Amino acid sequence: MSGTASENVAKQYQLSRSQQDEFAIASQQKAAAAQQQGRFKDEIIPIDCDSIIVEMDGCIRANTSIEEMAGLKPAFSTDGTVTAANSSPLTDGASATLVCSEEYAIQNKLTPLARINSIAVSGCAPETMGLGPIFATKKALQRASLTITDIDIIEINEAFASQSIACIQELKVDINRVNIDGGAIALGHPLGATGARITGKAAALLKRENKHYALATQCIGGGQGIATILESL
């Protein structure tokens, strides 16, 4: 369903294979640079698995090239443009965030990363479910009395390059504010974990980059989108 929807989005927005591949390789390059520079360390808890310490994302393809991507066959349609390289890969993963009241944080001597300003969920056509973030984001911005130009940091789920590009274009977002350490095309998109990952990432980036507002948004299978706007403290 989601693969077909990604092809539908690519056709609706007339997104070429090369556009999608370029977006995908940028995600890989940003994630590889972030990993090499240690920018993920504060976001990852090392796990001991039978004396093997898991402390790095193993999905990032630092040496991927446009030429290699161009050689892949379409994944969902013989004449399609969506491939394994410009889609999020199958990965395992886990993430956690703590959401609490200000009172609870003070009582337990916790240092919050950010405050939730607004949250919104919106429906969309199942055939183009990747567009859900567009409608959810607009609703969240309205609830926060903000515009997209007020948002400094944007984390979008990157289920597929076509979906991400369409949302970026429709929301008229500055691409330089989107997934600055790479996204799910490079890191993976484990169902049930992505929402916590990108929200936590957005909060961490607000602090690291000394910015004021962040948006975390993702599509939801079946025809929905969700968006959360965070505010620095």
TrEMBL record:
CDD domains: thiolase. It comes from the Bacteria. SUPFAM superfamilies: Thiolase-like. The keyword Acyltransferase applies. One of its GO terms (biological process) is phenylacetate catabolic process. Pfam families: Thiolase_C, Thiolase_N. One of its GO terms (cellular component) is cytoplasm. Keywords: Acyltransferase, Transferase. Residues 3-103 form the Thiolase N-terminal domain. GO terms for molecular function: acetyl-CoA C-acyltransferase activity. PROSITE patterns: THIOLASE_2 (PS00737). Residues 110-231 form the Thiolase C-terminal domain. Coiled coil: none annotated. Belongs to the thiolase-like superfamily. Thiolase family. This is Acetyl-CoA acetyltransferase. It comes from Cycloclasticus zancles 78-ME.
